[in-house]
Amino acid sequence: MATPKPKARNVADLKASILRPSLTSTYECHFSIPSGALSTMASWMNSRGLPYDSTLKKDITLSCREASLPGTSLATHTLDNDRSGVTERHVYRRQFDTTASFTFYVDHDYNIINFFENYIAFIVNEPKNTDVEKDNFFYRVSFPKEYKTEIFIRKFERDYNGDNLVYKFLNAYPISINQMPVSYEQSQILLCTVNFNFSRYVIIPPGGFTQSAPPSSSSLDNLPVDQQRDSVINDSIPQTFGNTNGEGTDFVERDTATGERMDGAFFGDGLLLLPDGTPVRNADGSFREMF
To answer: Which of 189, 204, 219 is the last residue of a domain?
Structure first.
C-alpha cells in the first residue's frame, strides 16, 4: 500500500477539524435507583428523611464536578513458535475498567452524601431503626438484581449541536465513598467522591440500537442439509435416527443414574440389534434385550 501524499489544506479545513476541539467541561452524569427496587428504596430513603424526587435527581446531576470516561483494553495471547523470529499476539478477551469514580459538590443540606450513604445502606439491607446502634447489629446483603442499576455519562459541546457521546454503564452500583477531610484551615468546597463498580459499558449510537431480526426460514434453505438440521430445532419431530431398537422406533427417555424408563413402563424396549438389524445373542444363545 502506497503512502498518502501531502495535501494542501485551507482555513476551512482547519476550522472543521482541529479548531473545533471537544471541551472537558461540557457533560452530564445521570444516576438513578434501580428500577426493580425503585418503590422500595424510595420509601426506605423517605423513612430516613431524604425524599427521592425529581429535584434530588436534578441536583445530583448538576453537582457532579468530575467524572472519567471509561477505558477498555484487549487481553492477548503471545505466540513465539509459529514463525521463526516473529512474535505474534492474538486477542482473546476484551477487558473493562473495574470502577468508575464520580466527584460531587456537597450541598448545604448534605443531600449528596445522604443519598449515596443510604444507597450503600440499602445494598447491605441495614435496619431503618435504632437496631443499627446495637452491639449485636447484623445485616444481610440484598440480591444483586435489587441494587444494580444503569448510570450514564453524556458528553456534548457548548453549542449543543452535533451528536452526543453517551456512555451507558451496565450493572453499576456504588462500592465505596472516599474520605472527605475537614479542617480549620482556609475553607474550601466539600467534595464527595463515589466509586461505582460495573460489569461493562456500551456507547449508545445517536439513533439508538437496532433490533436484530431473527433468521428467516428462507435464509436456511441455501445451507447444506446437515447444517439446516443443526440450525433449526424442532422438538415436535420424533428423533428416531440411531435407535438400537430398530428403525422407526422412538427413543425412550431414561433416568441418567439408574437407567429406569421415565414413561413409567416396566417392560423392556425389545431386542438389542446390531447395525445390520440382526439381534444380539448372549453367551448361552438367548437373545439379549435392551433392559
So the answer is: 204
Which CATH number does the domain housing residue 151 bear?
Answer: 2.30.110
* Cα-only R_g, the chain: 32
Same domain as 236, residue 186? no
pLDDT at 286: 76
Backbone dihedral region for residue 70 (phi beyond 0: left; psi -120 to 50: alpha; all else: beta): beta
Terminal Cα-to-Cα distance of the chain (whole angstroms):
70
Residues of the chain with pLDDT under 70: 213-272, 275, 287-291
Q: Considering its fold, how many domains does the chain have in total?
A: 2
**pTM of the full predicted structure?**
0.67
Rounded to whole angstroms, how far apart are CA atoms 51 and 268? 69
Residue 268, C-beta contacts closer than 8 angstroms, at least 6 positions apart: 289, 290, 291
Return d(Cα 103, Cα 116) in angstroms, integer: 12
Question: Under 8 Å CB-to-CB from 126, ≥6 apart: which residues?
Answer: 132, 139
CA distances from 46 to 10, 106, 141, 171, 277 (A): 61, 20, 20, 24, 76
52-58: which pairs have CB atoms within 8 A and are 24 or more residues apart?
A: 52/115, 56/111, 56/115, 57/30, 57/31, 57/32
pLDDT tens digits along 172-188: 999 999 999 999 999 99
Interatomic CA distance for residues 206 and 163, integer angstroms: 6
